[in-house]
Specification:
This protein is of the alpha+beta class. Helices cover about 30% and strands about 35% of the residues. It has one domain. The protein has helices spanning about 45-50, 55-65, 80-84, and strands at about 5, 10-20, 20-30, 35-40, 70-75. The chain has a five-stranded antiparallel sheet, covered by helices on one side. A hairpin with a 5-residue loop joins strand 1 (about 5) and strand 2 (about 10-20). Helix 1 (about 45-50) runs antiparallel to helix 2. It starts with a strand and ends with a helix.
Length: about 80
């Protein structure tokens, strides 16, 4: 998935891709480079809001992270480490 870099001390990049089961959002975190995938009914809404937010990190902490309990979230680990 292609991700767009964001200016944030928490988040390095964000991307969204349509899958047969619905949209999937990926967030790469700045510290450690871990990538998480998010799915659920509000993924596209969260992606658009996160990309427009004055602070991507604050938006994530307030609106996306709490949804981890109700939406699907999985860690892909650090793809950069597995490529080396």
């Amino acid at each position: 998935m292609n991700r767009t870099p964001v200016t944030s001390s928490l988040i390095a990049s964000v991307g969204i891709e349509e899958q047969p089961e619905g949209p999937v959002m990926e967030i790469e975190f700045a510290k450690g480079g871990t990538v998480y995938q998010y799915t659920g009914p509000k993924v596209r809404e969260h992606y658009e809001a996160l990309m427009k937010a004055p602070s991507a990190g604050q938006y994530f902490l307030r609106h996306v992270k709490p949804c981890q309990q109700t939406s699907f979230c999985r860690s892909l680990g650090n793809p950069k480490q597995t490529q080396e």
